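Worked problem 6 (solution included).
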Amino acid sequence: MKLNRREFLSLAGKSAAGAVIFAACGLPEKELIVQSPVEMPEDLVKGEDQWYATTMGDFPGGDGIIVRIMEGRAKKIAGNPDHPITQGKSNARYDSALQMLYHPDRIREPLSRYSKGGNLNGISWTRAIKEFKDALNTGGNITLVTNPLRGHPGLIASKFASHYGGLHINFDPIEQGILHKTVEDIFAQKSLPHLDIGNAKSIMSFGADWLSTWVSPVQYSRFYGSFRSQSDRGYFIHVDPRMSMTAANADLWLPVKPSYEGDLALGIARIIVEEKLTSEINIEAYKKYLSPGFLNGYQLRDVSHRTGLPEEKIKKAAHKISEKTPSIVFGGGSTEAHTNGSFNLRAVYGLNILLGSVGVAGGVLPNPSSEIDDLPASSSGASMKEWEEELSHWRAGNVDTVIIRGVDLAYGLPNFLGVADAINNVKNVIVFSTFEDDTTELADLVLPESTFFESWGSDIPEPAPGYPVLSMQQPVVVSNSRGFADVLLEVSEGAIGSTQEKMITSTITTLQKTGTGSVRASAAGLYKTGILQRGGWWNTNYSGNISGSYRESSKTGEISTFSKTNSLGEGTEFHLIPFVSNSLLNGQLAPTPWAQQNPDPMSTVAWVTWAELNKSEADELNIDEGDILLIKSTSGEIEALAYPHPGVQPGTICIPTGQGNSKKGRYAENRGSNVFAILSDQKDSETGALA
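Solution. The predicted structure is:
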């Protein structure tokens, strides 16, 4: 048998453990530095460092990482050089995540409140489990609220809710299903597709800050490196009212007027069709799903007027993506965050059919569904319409027990929903959390949850890199906290499984029987060791199909609607654009000082909430940098420091998420403002997602 260098090192270095073969699977070949012995790291006090492979559960992208352990303490996080998502690449958020593990303000023990409005008091885990069981056994309706989950945590959450006849509902303050719905409508894919950016010759992205925070930034940044490594560097166009980090890297930035991104996409489509910039086959495929005259309202002059973009730049964009092929067009973020968000995204992704970019290298490629039955591979937040309905049941007293995990619901939902009043009408409110936050303030029972360093788990990265990946999460340090999924298994007394580790072991056994993927071993124990050592399982031999069936939106041509501001008093109207903080995300990393002090890459601001607005417009309003702005909506008001600069579309005000927490530890408490609080009661007209 011929061995490559990786296989030789793994066999030579682990001969005592037996034969485990690691197939390179097309990934970069590196020395084996990831080790996962049976003993816990705390048992290895040798003065030597050990590296363990795991994954960052609950963070964007499903990044595979390695953690450096020295005498039982985690010292460093880096990208796993073996893992298909990271391939050794990292971002600054890794270091901030490490600070969450040893944060002085972590919840150290379960907390119980004797009565509504009373004080939280420390209790033992034994008593906490009993109170949890008592709440479940009193009967009545149950709702389980989590962040979007995949892999084993998602499976366990779904089974738990089903076992107790309850509802499992996901919450994400930004992504509420428009992107997934668009992908399913156009490409017949349940999971987000693989965007083959690295092999494209031109890219056009709409709204999605994919080099910073959108979906899978580490993976996309790797692809971007490949894209720019081509002989002609490729050509990159970004459409966004705000100069984001992604826009700053573009060859052509188009600062479109908010909510007119779909008009721009259809205007570009009309140019391509009229000037026959693509093949007749592609044009016919695109026209197949459009009604006659569908593009009549998108003449260049009209589109230029609506979008605020010069005609010559719109034509330039159309020619670039048509002539430099293969090309890829995608969008999300601010592009979908309007009452016509579905219309916008459908117009954007439909361009791939017109350009012949569906199912080809450098275009939109299929991603597999889960390799294991029942293990969820895709997830997104429920729409605001669904949340309004669910909260109405809480408010009416129709739900007796609410279990919340992975989200700060009272922080992330806008004021107009009255979430605190709804939660206060629920008899039993149980919250899993690492820190006290706005939601734990309303809880009857608070359970300290393990970080991803301390518990078992798995994740199916979304989007996958074009082939199946199952990332493994293993405990690398020990604490008094417990994993969310394992607590659910414990209180359900084995009805849905014993422990998460045993469920993962069963899944690994199933994978071994397939005889495919990145690990080979003769014995089950060796196979599990190999997968943990590698950080997961993947199979680069996947090949799947993807269709392209663009259909005009049922709300074609509908103009985005806005909240009425007549009752708010004196002031100037702006279009509010919340954007995900590069360092704090949506508040997940707000407790950590490293994230707080990490300057925003565009404004260099740290520790505070700022508001970006157009420099010329600010001059007209006599607003200088650092002035305190009072920003009002029909849902409330917040303060932010003014940051005028040229890279903002006039008429817009852009505010980062992540600050404005009333709790969450000493570094985040009462710092800045919460932009989620003032979002108004406006929804996407097709999906009901928050606009």
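Discussion: Confidence is low (pLDDT under 50) at residues 1-17, 29-41.
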